[in-house]
Amino acid sequence: MYRSRFQNFIFKYIFFLSGLLLLNSCGGSKNNMEQEDFNELSQLVESGKFEIENTWAIPLGGGNINLIGNPNSIEIMGDSVEVYLPYFGVRQSGGSYDGEAGIKLKDKIRNLKVDEDPTKGKIDFKFETSQNTENLNFIISLYSNNKARTQVISSQRTSISYDGIISKLEKN
Questions:
Q1: So where are the chain's domains?
Q2: For the chain, how long is the longest CA-to-CA vector?
Q3: pTM as predicted
């Protein structure tokens, strides 16, 4: 059967609009899922009980180092933190390794600052702590896909970053 050009145009136009509506509706459910993921992350951070296990260390000026199979963690328990991280870098001055080359500490969290950015699905968790005579600043970016990026800035060592996964802390 013969269709006029106008009928073909109308058919293509309706088909095109239907496709756009379908794509838009799919994107809406993704945004709802991302918002739900962000809300879960926000509740986890508010609970003050979570841990990060890192899969990569990223030393300043060096290549990525795979940490899978190497014990490491950052455990947040209310106003306290327990950290065990391998360290790859240079000690700049002062202090000693005291037999421990990594960053290992149990301390109170000081100067905690939490910044939420729901549009990016990200929460920045910043705090200060210390290990013997060394002052440490932690900047932890938590993402709604349960990924974490931790930057450690030390008064005695070169900075280092870690990539890992955030989860609920199971121990009391």
A1: 42-168
A2: 89
A3: 0.78
